[in-house]
Amino acid sequence: MKITFLGTGTSQGVPVIACECHTCTSEDPKDKRLRTSLMVQTDYVTIVFDAGPDFRQQMLKEHVIKLDAIVLTHEHKDHIAGMDDVRAFNFKSQDAIDIYAEPSVQEAVKREYKYVFDNRYAGIPRMRLNNIPPDEFEIKGLRLIPIRVKHKELDIYGFRIGSFAYITDADYIPEASMEKLIGVKYLVINALRKQKHSSHFTLSEAVEHIRKVSPRKAYITHIGHQMGRHKEVSDELEPGIMLAYDGLTLTI
Ligand SMILES: [Zn+2]
Ligand SMILES: [Zn+2]
Ligand SMILES: [Zn+2]
User: Fold this and answer.
1) The pLDDT of residue 24
2) 148-195, pLDDT tens digit by residue?
3) How many CB atoms sit inside 10 A of residue 120's CB?
C-alpha cells in the first residue's frame, strides 16, 4: 500500500495569501502546503481522503490517471471544494465517481453541488453517493474502519486501513475511538499550530495522542502557518514523529 500526502496545510494553505510571516516567506518547498488530502493506492484501487480546493492541482502533480473513490472525512469547504473536477475522471472512466460520506456530509455535498444533483445540464460532474457504515466497509477490496472523532461541535470520521490510520481535523478523540487505534503502526494526525485552537489539536495535544497510540511512526498534517517553518519545528520533535509535507510518500 502506498500513501501519498497530497496536501498537508490547513484551510487557508501555506503560504497564506497576503501574509508576510516567517513561515509564509520561507523558500523551503516543505513550507508550501496545499489543503489537506491523502491518497491511498494498492495494485487494485486508488482512493483519496477529501477533495479540497487544490484537488485538481494534486491530481495533476501526482499524475493520478485513475481514481476509484473519494472518502470524505467531513463537509468543511477545505475538504470538499474541489469536487467539480471529478469530471475528468468521469470522462475517462465513462462512469460516475464513488463518494463515501455519512448522511450529514452527503446533504452538504448535495447543497454545495446542487447543479450536480439537479442533473439538468450537460458536462456536469457525476457523483455516486455511498454511505459509510459505522463499523467497516470495503472499496474494491480495501477495508476501511471509520473512527469517530470530534471537530469542535461536529462528529467527523478518521479512518483505519490495516496498520495505518488517518485522523484529520480532530480536537478530541473519544476513548472508544482510541481503542480502535490500538496496534496502529503508522498514524497521521492533525495539529494546526502550537497555540490553543477551538477546533483542532495543537502540536502538543497531537503528540500526547501519538504517545498513547504509540505507533512506529507518526505524521502531523493540517498544518497552519503559525506552526512555524518545517525545518525548525521538525528539529524540536521527538524521534518517530514528523511534520508531514506535500508529496511525502510511505510504503506500508
Ligand atoms: Zn480542514
Ligand atoms: Zn503566514
Ligand atoms: Zn474542518
Assistant:
1) 98
2) 999 999 999 999 999 999 999 999 999 999 999 999 999 999 999 999
3) 7
Domain range spanning residue 29? 2-245
Which residues, chain by chain, have CB under 5 Å from ion ligand 1?
78, 169
Task: Report if residue 53 sits inside a domain.
Answer: yes
CA of 25 to the centre of ligand 2 (A): 7
Question: How many A from CA of 10 to the centre of ligand 1?
Answer: 6
Q: For the chain, what is the domain count?
A: 1
| CA 17 to ligand 2 center in whole angstroms | 8
Q: How many Å apart are CA 71 and CA 91, to the nearest integer? A: 20
* Percent of the chain residues topping a pLDDT of 90: 98
Residue 221: its pLDDT value, please? 98
Task: Give the CATH number for residue 231.
Answer: 3.60.15.10
**Measured CA distances, 158 to 47, 65, 113, 213 (Å):** 14, 26, 23, 14
* Domain presence at residue 251: no
Domain-embedded: residue 250? no
Q: What distance in angstroms lies between residue 144's CA and the mean position of ligand 1's atoms?
A: 21
Lookup: cell for 98: 464513488
pTM of the predicted model as reported, rounded to 2 decimal places: 0.97
- Does residue 252 lie within any of the structural domains? no
